[in-house]
Write a structure and sequence with these properties.
Strand content: 25-35%
CATH architecture of the largest domain: 3-Layer(aba) Sandwich
Radius of gyration: 31 Å
Bound molecules: adenosine monophosphate, magnesium ion
Oligomer: single chain
Largest sheet: 7 strands, mixed
Low-confidence stretches: 431-438
Shape: elongated
């Protein structure tokens, strides 16, 4: 009987899901559309950064030797022969014994070797007509306030390797060395389908026996927060034919399909009825919440095979399943290390709580700052009913999921535990980040 499938560990289940997905193809995108994506090429500087030698201050370009003796008592007066604003207009070369007014980022005129900041002259800061002469009241060393061409990155230097996850600063670096578009791994597309005859759209009036479909919005948000696109998000009832039709459309537009609900031991388990086959299996994982899980590939249509992860319907189970299984799969699709999604932080239980025997518990917890700085944060279950899988109304209070080993049935106050952080909604977390058990 299908329900007798043996229990597997979280890691076994995750690895089997990871085996269903591989890195998506590369595409070329403008910089502004690359945030969070994985770079697919090694970047070498096409331009030196900065691209030309320029001033780091508003002031006067000079030869340092000409102002060597300057002081407040005995200023050195130099005739000002021109203006060098930032931008393409180039002033003529600096003649010995003269100054050129220069702005931050403007090219250093030929013949100049230093900049005297306006504050070290008799001139006012801000907008003013070009003065006929400037009195310099402090000397500057040769090279002072000069940023040399290529001193940040010389042309041809490696800037970042393929595989880099592109954050805002990486996009700036790529732009600065001459790239307007980048070859990146395509952003993963995730389709989400929630199931259940009892589900109503959130906000709609409830008939007897119906509940708001809180999972659909949650799963879409989890995918979006992670950085995936969600081309399809639909709710279906418990009719396998309707589900099958929706899954056909999902397979056309998605790299990965996630369903929730309809996979446990009831008499009307729509996902199971529609999909159970050699290609899609339903299993029991030694975890709580989230024991029933499904995985496989949708086959048979023109756009298939497409991998599918079937999560249980209870909201906390769906949430934990997304964090533990779907995020690593998205990471692999996106060309990142899936195990980067398994990092945990060390916390300490603030109070005692129970955990089921033989199943690893993922308990939603609040984190409280430790009494002494540097010690682990203190974890307290977000609800007196602990990690019960229906407690969706307090899940938003969790900063992390405390991970209780399968053999532990009673967490003691003070016990050290790993915890999966839930950024960006977490407060500051301890710096001590350790990999989860694997
Ligand atoms: P199932 O996994 O379909 O057996 O559902 C398990 C429990 O989760 C039941 O109490 C369902 O009513 C509830 N549930 C299933 N799907 C959702 C959903 N999309 N939103 C909120 N609760 C759900
Ligand atoms: Mg159901």
């Amino acid at each position: 009987m299908a329900h007798a499938s043996p229990t597997r560990t979280v890691e076994e289940h995750r690895d089997e899901i990871l085996a269903l997905v591989s890195t998506l193809p590369a595409v070329t995108l403008p910089l502004a559309r690359c945030l969070g994506l994985t770079l697919h090429e090694d970047l070498v500087a096409r331009l030196p950064a900065p691209p030309f030698t320029n001033s780091s201050m508003d002031g006067f370009a000079v030869r340092a030797a000409d102002v060597a003796g300057a002081s407040a008592e005995r200023p050195v007066e130099l005739p000002v022969t021109g203006d060098q604003p930032a931008g393409p207009a180039a002033a003529s070369a600096l003649a010995p014994g003269t100054a050129i007014r220069i702005m931050t980022g403007a090219p250093l005129p030929d013949g100049a070797d230093a900049v005297v900041p306006v504050e070290q002259t008799d001139q006012p800061r801000g907008a003013a007509p070009l003065p006929p002469a400037v009195r310099v009241v402090e000397p500057v060393a040769a090279g002072a306030y000069v940023r040399h061409r290529g001193e940040g990155v010389p042309v041809g230097a490696p800037v970042m390797p393929a595989g880099t996850r592109l954050g805002p600063a990486a996009l700036a670096a790529a732009g600065a060395v001459g790239y307007g578009e980048l070859s990146v791994v395509r952003r993963p597309r995730l389709a989400v389908v929630s199931t259940g005859d009892e589900l109503a759209a959130p906000g709609d009036a409830l008939g007897g026996g119906t509940i708001p479909d809180s999972n659909l919005a949650m799963l879409v948000a989890l995918a979006t927060e992670w950085g995936a696109d969600v081309p399809l998000a639909e709710r279906v009832g418990d009719d396998p034919e309707v589900l099958d039709a929706v899954l056909s459309r999902a397979a056309e537009v998605a790299d990965l399909v996630v369903t929730c609900g309809g996979i446990s031991a009831g008499a009307f388990e729509v996902v199971r009825q529609a999909l159970e086959s050699p290609e899609v299996r339903f299993v029991q994982v030694a975890m709580q919440p989230g024991k029933p899980q499904g995985l496989g590939v949708l086959t048979g249509g023109p756009h298939r095979p497409v991998p599918v992860v079937a999560l249980p319907g209870n909201p906390v189970s769906s949430f934990v399943g997304f964090r533990v299984y779907v995020r690593p799969a998205l990471a692999r699709l996106a060309g990142r290390d899936p195990l980067g999604e398994t990092l945990t932080v060390q916390v300490r239980a603030a109070e005692a709580w129970r955990s089921p025997s033989g199943r690893r518990q993922y308990a939603p917890v609040r984190l409280e700052a430790p009494e002494r700085p540097g010690e682990p944060y203190l974890a307290r279950p977000t609800h007196r009913l602990g990690s019960a899988s229906h407690l969706v109304g307090s899940l938003h209070l969790a900063h992390a999921l405390a991970v209780v080993p399968a053999e532990v049935t009673q967490v003691e106050a003070g016990q050290a535990l790993p915890a999966v952080p839930l950024p960006p909604w977490s407060p500051e977390l301890p710096d001590q980040v350790v990999p989860a058990p694997r």
